[in-house]
Write a structure and sequence with these properties.
- The chain has 139 residues and is of the alpha+beta class.
- Helices cover 15% and strands 32% of the residues.
- Strands 1, 2, 3, 4, 5, 6 and 7 form a seven-stranded antiparallel β-sheet that branches.
- Strand 5 and strand 6 form a beta hairpin.
- The longest helix has 7 residues.
- The radius of gyration is 14 Å and the shape is globular.
- The C terminus is likely disordered.
Length: 139
């Protein structure tokens, strides 16, 4: 898998990062989720996991030629908004050893792979249920 770095939101010790791949997907590197109240809201299939990232991480989508990187709608199960103002992104857990070797991943972070169309659809204006979900963030 080929990776193209799009951007990261770093503070001391934290490094959520966004990559584009040659497989029409995005890799989202973020914090592992340990909060039981948050995990109970997710239906994670085998081979999948979820990460938590700052909302600003998706501003880097402009580096992939998208007109805006602001997430305008929340779509379960791919993404939920937490009460802390972060996103939880669910996707296939990245196990490609060569790809992982090119990233700097602390022990408390992991990486998920999400189809580009699933992420780019979230850039559209919210409608109906999306507005309601956005107004009532996850725990």
């Amino acid at each position: 898998m080929k990776l193209r770095f799009l951007g990261k939101n770093s503070t001391v010790g934290d490094c959520p990062t966004l990559y584009a791949t040659d497989r029409d997907t995005y890799l989202v590197q973020g914090w592992k989720i340990f909060a039981n109240d948050l995990l109970t809201q997710l239906e994670i299939s085998e081979g999948e996991t979820a990460v938590e990232v700052p909302t600003e991480l998706f501003e880097h989508l402009v580096q992939d030629g998208l007109p805006a990187g602001e997430i305008r709608r929340i779509e379960d199960p791919i993404m939920i908004l937490t009460s802390g103002g972060t996103f939880v992104v669910q996707g296939r857990e990245v196990t490609d050893i060569e790809a992982l070797a090119r990233m700097e991943i602390p022990d408390y972070e992991t990486v998920v792979e999400v189809p580009k169309p699933a992420i780019t659809a979230l850039l559209e204006e919210p409608h109906g249920a999306d507005l309601q979900r956005r107004a009532q963030p996850a725990l």
